[in-house]
Amino acid sequence: MFLTTFPSSHLGFLLLPIHCLLETNAFEVEIKEANTTCISAKLRINFTVEYETTNGTSKNITFTAPEKVTTDGSSCGGAAPLLNVHFGNGNLWSLNFTKNDKEYRGSVLSFTYNLSDSALFPDAKKKNLVISTTNTSFFVPVPLNSSYTCLHDDTVTAQNVVQLYWNVTLQAYMNNSTLGKDFHCSADIPSTTQSPTTYSTTIPSTTTTPQPTTKPVDKPSVGNYSVLNGTEPCLLASMGLQLNASMLFEGKNVWTALNIDPSNTNSSGTCGNETALLRLTNGTTVVEFHFVIKEKNFHLKEVNVTLFNVSDLSYKTNFNLSLWEASLGNSYLCRKEQLITVSEDLYINTFDVRVQPFNLNKGNYGTAEECFADSDLSFLIPIAVGTVLVFLIILVFISYLIGRRKSRTGYQSV
Ligand SMILES: *[C@@H]1O[C@H](CO)[C@@H](O)[C@H](O)[C@H]1NC(C)=O
Ligand SMILES: *[C@@H]1O[C@H](CO)[C@@H](O)[C@H](O)[C@H]1NC(C)=O
Ligand SMILES: *[C@@H]1O[C@H](CO)[C@@H](O)[C@H](O)[C@H]1NC(C)=O
Ligand SMILES: *[C@@H]1O[C@H](CO)[C@@H](O)[C@H](O)[C@H]1NC(C)=O
Ligand SMILES: *[C@@H]1O[C@H](CO)[C@@H](O)[C@H](O)[C@H]1NC(C)=O
Ligand SMILES: *[C@@H]1O[C@H](CO)[C@@H](O)[C@H](O)[C@H]1NC(C)=O
Ligand SMILES: *[C@@H]1O[C@H](CO)[C@@H](O)[C@H](O)[C@H]1NC(C)=O
Ligand SMILES: *[C@@H]1O[C@H](CO)[C@@H](O)[C@H](O)[C@H]1NC(C)=O
Ligand SMILES: *[C@@H]1O[C@H](CO)[C@@H](O)[C@H](O)[C@H]1NC(C)=O
Ligand SMILES: *[C@@H]1O[C@H](CO)[C@@H](O)[C@H](O)[C@H]1NC(C)=O
Ligand SMILES: *[C@@H]1O[C@H](CO)[C@@H](O)[C@H](O)[C@H]1NC(C)=O
Ligand SMILES: *[C@@H]1O[C@H](CO)[C@@H](O)[C@H](O)[C@H]1NC(C)=O
């Protein structure tokens, strides 16, 4: 028998096989110990198995791991957790894990199939159990407390078996039952070829380590956006937006710049007496600007970014901004590039901003209040030169007066 054994010290733990979701052909399991989940896995697998048929020929058969699975024999197991997934008549997909102080990864992956399972192998010549084991890693090392996510296909090949995976979400060494930050496989990371958005980094989909290119990103085009109250605009904004996000890529942080293309960006939002919201939606990327009124001025208070469809949970928010301030009835204008820090791994570069979230002038911008960065500091130079000149003249004049007094005294003394 192939039955997996594990150290008896782990037997005392409470191991609970958990639910399968309704999503067809994706199984979802959680391995628990003392009510705390240590392994969570949800994935789809297609197995292609080559076996010998009754008439002596080889045959390939492809089948999908079903939704209905059990997890007997799985173990949180401290340093070497084990995930056992049983399905059908004695088929077992089994993966154990290993870690160091920073990362974890799959260790040994084995698939045991039962050639006497007539549903899968009706014409198999032999009727034995076959164990196909591979050390080729099922997934790359993943930072601890992150969950490995790969929506794209990936294959693992072993003797007589090819396993094709997709829609994988898997985390081991969990310590508080919560899935960590998504760590995506390279295939999921958007590349330069993806339109309409452009990325500054070229990330090859092969296994080579990506090198962020140093090539500067084009300036984003400026878009005109508005929020309507009935048919009349109640919020106007125009700006060029570039998101600059740090994404985990095979254990490395890669800065990726993404220009928001106004031609396929929709604006929506709300106007109010105290607060206003501008929401820009470009595909699955959403940038929200929250404005508030403080005394006689408005300013940008909060920015909320939802990034890339591959990272479903990627909400980043900065609640505590005090930017883009101007008097009510006026608009804020800044031609220079500005940087908004949304979080430590997400920045927004803004270009040619003009915005008025309150008190529009019949649907149009009011007077522009230009940001300090735009103001040409050269006007200060004549003032500085003038000040120095006046000071020098006064100095000369004083010395003249002193000189005259001295010479007068001289005359008198003679
Ligand atoms: C696990 O949860 C159950 C019910 O929620 C509770 O009765 C049990 O005491 C818990 N066990 C541990 C070890 O926390
Ligand atoms: C027997 O072999 C032939 C090819 O030689 C194949 O087409 C056929 O499907 C096989 N039959 C069985 C029952 O496996
Ligand atoms: C089965 O699939 C494997 C891998 O794709 C291939 O090498 C082999 O030739 C196939 N066998 C048959 C009988 O089609
Ligand atoms: C998985 O296998 C099934 C047949 O069992 C097939 O219909 C399906 O297209 C395969 N999926 C992929 C992604 O290859
Ligand atoms: C393999 O399949 C046969 C037939 O369905 C079944 O009797 C046997 O118990 C299975 N083996 C295991 C290890 O489950
Ligand atoms: C995983 O299991 C294999 C046997 O199936 C064992 O040789 C290997 O040491 C295990 N890996 C770890 C990290 O325990
Ligand atoms: C669980 O742990 C992760 C990382 O260790 C942490 O970010 C998260 O806040 C924790 N959640 C709870 C509910 O403690
Ligand atoms: C945005 O508005 C400005 C001024 O109203 C105009 O000059 C510019 O062409 C507009 N840009 C686009 C892309 O519509
Ligand atoms: C993105 O941010 C990183 C870190 O601050 C910086 O090194 C990089 O130059 C930025 N890229 C762009 C296009 O602003
Ligand atoms: C929206 O329009 C209504 C009716 O024209 C007006 O009463 C209200 O003040 C407007 N609200 C804003 C925020 O401009
Ligand atoms: C950020 O935006 C997302 C999507 O619009 C929303 O679900 C989330 O609640 C927002 N977060 C905050 C703090 O506003
Ligand atoms: C993510 O984008 C891909 C194509 O880029 C699409 O097929 C998929 O449905 C999207 N997923 C979500 C959740 O929007």
Descriptive notes:
The structure is a single chain. The protein has three domains: 3-188, Beta Barrel (Porin); 223-370, Porin; 377-404. Helix content is 8%, strand content 46%. The protein has one helix and 25 strands. The strands form four sheets. Strands 1, 2, 3, 9, 10, 11 and 12 form a seven-stranded mixed β-sheet that branches. Strands 13, 14, 15, 22, 23, 24 and 25 form a seven-stranded mixed β-sheet that branches. A hairpin with a 5-residue loop joins strand 2 (36-52) and strand 3 (58-64). It is elongated, with a radius of gyration of 33 Å. The relative contact order is 0.09. Mean pLDDT is 80; it is low at 1-23, 191-215 and 309-313. One 2-acetamido-2-deoxy-beta-D-glucopyranose binds next to loops.
Topology summary:
Layout: E1 27-33, E2 36-52, E3 58-64, E4 82-87, E5 91-99, E6 103-114, E7 129-134, E8 142-143, E9 146-150, E10 154-158, E11 161-171, E12 181-184, E13 222-229, E14 232-249, E15 252-259, E16 266-270, E17 275-282, E18 285-294, E19 297-306, E20 315-318, E21 323-327, E22 331-334, E23 338-343, E24 346-356, E25 368-370, H1 380-413
Parallel strand pairs: 9-12, 22-25
Antiparallel strand pairs: 1-2, 2-3, 2-11, 4-5, 5-6, 6-7, 6-8, 9-11, 10-11, 13-14, 14-15, 14-24, 16-17, 17-18, 18-19, 19-20, 19-21, 22-24, 23-24
